[in-house]
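Write out this protein's structure.
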Amino acid sequence: MAETNTKAPVYRYFTADLLTNEILAEVPFRGVSYERAIKGAGRFGGSIAFNPQTEPLNLYESTMPGNTALFVVRDGVCVWGGIIWQRDYDIVGRSLQVSAS
């Protein structure tokens, strides 16, 4: 009988400078959705909470639209990559909404 793997996948999210490809931060996104596309740009959306744990990440610089790449890694394999094009700060929820494609 075949053994099934019931472990949930582990996702990690990295931002990198588009010019140098230097990793800027591992960002703890939540509420993530992303899609891969064959004949177009796949989209990414997610939010980052502003709290004491994310303060050292320098989210202003590490999510700069038009200058920052975003990579989605699932179980150690990069499954999505794109450019951050937009971010919006939610002052009430203390979170940053990020969009990329």
